[in-house]
Amino acid sequence: MSKQIQAIRGMNDCLPSQSGLWQYLENHLRHLMSQYGYQEIRMPIVESTDLFKRSIGEVTDIVEKEMYTFDDRNGDSLTLRPEGTACCVRAGNQHGLLYNQQQRLWYMGPMFRHERPQKGRYRQFHQFGVEVFGLNGPDIDAEIILLTARLWKQLGLSDHVILELNSLGSNEARARYKDALVEYLQAREDKLDDDCKRRMTSNPLRVLDSKNPDVQAAITDAPSLLDYLDDESAQHFSGLCERLDNLGIKYRVNSRLVRGLDYYNRTVFEWVTDSLGAQGTVCAGGRYDGLVEQLGGKATPAVGFAMGLERLVLMLEALELTSAVPKPVDIYITAMGESAELFAVNVAEQLRDQLPHLRVLSHCGGGNFKKQMKRADASGADIALLIGESEADSQQVTVKYLREEQAQISMTTAQLIEMLKTKK
Ligand code: ATP
Ligand code: MG
């Protein structure tokens, strides 16, 4: 026997036993976006490597060590997208969607990063993201946070996530802060790891983002970004806080929150959970007013976020919040004998016509009554329809309840449809 080929490490199949939960989550997201009047945008999975180098920043985990980059047959350097924001800005610029316009966009799909696979961290993972262009006030920052809060409520996660908030200020304010931070870090250089030492000069803010607990312990009293904010950014931030207070959305100001990508300014936020262990950030975003111009467009303010869908799925499972996930089958239709089979298909189609929300599975492949009932039970259906030759002759179906103690009963298809209508 030849050796079986396995999937790439860190790239997972989504099996039928899981796809119902994924669809449930995705459907919630689509509906949420329509509730807020946002429109979907779909970008390719592969882009020019330059796009990510220019936007995410050379001195970031993603660009330094996580990108799947390869030369295609023409010798062009391409990269499997590690995130969606740069792609969305590229598309917006290319199609003239951004300048002097307002766009509220969302996307959903796979992203690729060459990381060490572990729970909540994969090499192919999925993000749902929102990007808003052309609006610079705190009102829109509040709106995108508000809509994530609604999602948590819909999914039952509100008590398990908390919002962390910070402002990175303007470029000038951040530059002043950087000087103070570097001075602070230089005095503690011996306590930093090699990565952080390097970043101290190339991208000092990223030291604050270090996942090394020793580094975190060594920099507990680092200067706070919030003390360096320019007046306008400070006003923007207090405007956001006020709106969140007004909406009853709780948050924790975390002056260490800087995010792993370079392009952010002003608002940054993360929704974090302690239900997942180390991989606790489920949603992260902020304002990136400079990125559109940096990627060749005309200056356009922008704000957005991305959430990791695997982490949400893990949370819903861990917290046992999956009871609202629809079952794959409601009704299983058995058929014993040739004329029964013909009648059964007919009944199945009538049910699908009249009750389109029902999931109706028709037994195929014959077999005796016992075998068919076993399959009916394994399908998870609540009801099996038993159709044999006598049912075919009398044009009736026998209804058998699989999950409750109730006598089986025979009726016409029309009666069955009426009964199922009142049941829903
Ligand atoms: P982390 O600090 O966990 O590495 P990040 O800052 O790299 O996250 P972002 O680039 O902000 O993450 O991506 C947004 C969200 O996408 C994260 O908050 C997380 O939920 C999810 N995510 C990021 N990387 C992965 C991954 N490798 N596997 C699964 N989900 C991921
Ligand atoms: Mg990362």
Walkthrough of the structure:
- Belongs to the class-II aminoacyl-tRNA synthetase family.
- Residues 1-326 form the Aminoacyl-transfer RNA synthetases class-II family profile domain.
- It is an enzyme of class 6 (ligase).
- One of its GO terms (biological process) is histidyl-tRNA aminoacylation.
- InterPro entries: aa-tRNA-synth_II (IPR006195), aa-tRNA-synth_II/BPL/LPL (IPR045864), Anticodon-bd (IPR004154), Anticodon-bd_dom_sf (IPR036621), His-tRNA-ligase (IPR015807), HisRS-like_core (IPR041715), HisRS/HisZ (IPR004516), HisRS_anticodon (IPR033656).
- With 424 residues, the chain is an alpha+beta fold.
- It is 41% helix and 20% strand.
- The chain contains 16 helices and 16 strands.
- It has helices at residues 16-35, 49-56, 61-66, 85-94, 138-155, 171-186, 194-202, 205-208, 213-218, 231-247, 291-294, 309-318, 338-354, 369-378, 389-394, 413-423; strands at residues 39-40, 46-48, 68-71, 77-80, 103-112, 124-133, 162-167, 251-253, 265-272, 281-287, 302-308, 331-333, 360-362, 383-386, 396-401, 409-412.
- It has an eight-stranded mixed sheet with strand order 1-5-6-11-10-9-7-8.
- A hairpin with an 8-residue loop joins strand 9 (265-272) and strand 10 (281-287).
- It is elongated, with a radius of gyration of 27 Å.
- The two termini are 51 Å apart.
- The mean pLDDT is 95.
- Bound molecules: adenosine-5'-triphosphate and magnesium ion.
- Adenosine-5'-triphosphate (ATP) binds next to strand 6, strand 10, strand 11 and helix 12.
